[in-house]
Amino acid sequence: MRTEQELQGISLLGNQHVQYSDQYNPSVLETFENKHPENEYVVTFDCPEFTTLCPKTGQPDFGHLFISYIPRERMVESKSLKLYLFSFRNHGDFHEDCVNIIMKDLVRLMNPKYLEVTGYFMPRGGISIYPFANYADADHQSLKEERIREQFTINTKH
């Protein structure tokens, strides 16, 4: 069981009075200590209700995001991630930008060994967009390259 000291800095989980920011807000992200930094393991978040706005028309865009990472010392707390993703609700950016912004914010937050963000956005004008962005430290460069190659194969089979 985690101690109170280990849970310091986790202010959103269990808080019934959390404010949902509808403007892009990376400051809401919180982390906790990874108790198993010696292990290579993957954490995946399935985010099926991501919304943002088209920067030109202001129309809503709906996406399904997958965020996977190999943690180092810190891990993202899931409620703070939910609030962070909600903060894109009125953010006007292209799908590709959102996926890259999310990746960069999470890399800055946690300094993971590896992290990837995949977006599956609903069709707009008959076209679906599936952006993929990933980051790897020096020890995981081969994984980064392999996952990029896989995206070309995966996305051409839909």
Write the SSE topology.
Layout (H helix, E strand, L loop, with lengths): L30 E3 L9 E11 L6 E11 L3 E3 L1 H9 L8 H16 L3 E8 L10 E5 L4 H15 L3
Structure notes:
The protein has a single domain (26-155), classed as GTP cyclohydrolase I, C-terminal domain/NADPH-dependent 7-cyano-7-deazaguanine reductase, N-terminal domain (GTP Cyclohydrolase I, domain 2, 2-Layer Sandwich). The chain has 3 helices and 6 strands; from the N terminus they run E-E-E-E-H-H-E-E-H. With 158 residues, it is of the alpha+beta class. The longest helix is centred in the middle third of the chain and has 16 residues, at 95-110. Strands 2-3-5-6 form a 4-stranded antiparallel β-sheet, with helices on both faces.
Oligomer: single chain
Spatial sequence of strands, sheet with the most strands: 2-3-5-6
What summary fits the major beta sheet?
A: 4 strands, antiparallel
Strand content: 25-35%
Summed over residues and divided by their number, the pLDDT gives a mean of 91
- Say what the CATH topology is: GTP Cyclohydrolase I, domain 2
Number of strands: 6
CATH homologous superfamily caption: GTP cyclohydrolase I, C-terminal domain/NADPH-dependent 7-cyano-7-deazaguanine reductase, N-terminal domain
Number of helices: 3
CATH class: Alpha Beta
Instruction: Return Rg in Å.
Output: 16 Å
* Overall 3D shape: flat
Number of structurally distinct domains:
1
Query: Helix coverage percent of residues?
Result: 25-40%
The termini sit apart by 43 Å
Helix-strand makeup class? alpha+beta
What is the succession of H and E elements?
EEEEHHEEH
Assign the CATH architecture.
2-Layer Sandwich
Q: Low-confidence runs (pLDDT<50, min 5 residues)?
A: none
